[in-house]
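Run: sequence + aspartic acid -> complex structure.
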Amino acid sequence: MIRSLLWSLCLASLALAPVQAGALPQVRLFTTGGTIQSKGAHRQKLMEYSDGRVTPSELVDDLPELRDVAQLSYAEISNVGSGNIDTKTLLTLAQQVNAWLALPEAAGAVVTHGTATLEETAYFLNLTVKSDKPVVVVGAMRPFTAVSRDGPMNLYNAVRVATTPQARDMGVLIMLNDEINAARDTTKNNTYRVDTFIARDVGPLGFADSDSIVFYRRPIYRHTSHSEFDVSKLSSLPRVDVLYAYQESDDAAVKAFVSAGAKGIVNSGGYSEPLAALKDKGVVVVQSDRKGSGRVVKSEKVAAKGQVTADNLPPQKARILLRLALTRTTDPVEIQRIFDEY
Ligand code: ASP
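>> structure
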């Protein structure tokens, strides 16, 4: 208990401490919650557990090996399941990560997150962080209390990656299962397996192996310090909803979205009749796809309807990009340019 308290005080004060020559790089851990910070009733409970149970100090105190890698400080943003991450939390997180990385002594940032919506927050940061210093988003598929939990190794690797010079200007990275993936390209693919995060179309960027961190390629699409989006003064974002496509879907959901104030709708399939009328209502429509990989090809037919195509972004990520695009313009031609570049 006393050790935990001293370690917490020490961590909390590190951000203010001057960096000594040869000292370890300074990394700040921003915690938001999720399974990596959850507890089950006992060690065999892998799938039933409660979010919001592990504090940041408990998380880092559990892993003394982090002290060999970095001078770690932390900031708690939230401690919730990732289904509860809202716009306010996203904006606060981006603003605090940016404030940290702007400090000369900051080497990188790590963000803990629930895996259910981790890819959305990672892509949001990929578009709004104003630094080329490494930002690594990490989660776990097994609770903190489980036999053979994956959180500690994922966190250890995330901090290692955040201190790695080769991770600079790679955009925001996702770290689980020893794999380093790009925020834009990666989605959660399996409800329970620890190898759930996969960049289906393009593969991982590299690996966190025990001997070294290795990268094999770099992301091409615009990100972080190359991004035009600025959320530093924003306290809200335009509402954008996602329409799930299925046989016999009618206009009920579209009408509900519009009356709830949607400024954009991302469609997840080709069944778009109810969406045609939105052009005259000033609601921007983006065509994505529910299949989870592959491009939606740009066509003259879609452009003539005043609609935008999402390239290979899945609907939940197209929604993030459309919300940010709508902070700058409502012109579908300009929004198509944004989808082509990010
Ligand atoms: N309950 C979790 C969440 O917050 C799932 C996870 O983190 O794996 O998304």
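>> summary
Residues 34-35, 51, 81-82, 114-116, 139, 141 surround aspartic acid (CB under 6 Å). The chain has nine helices and 14 strands.
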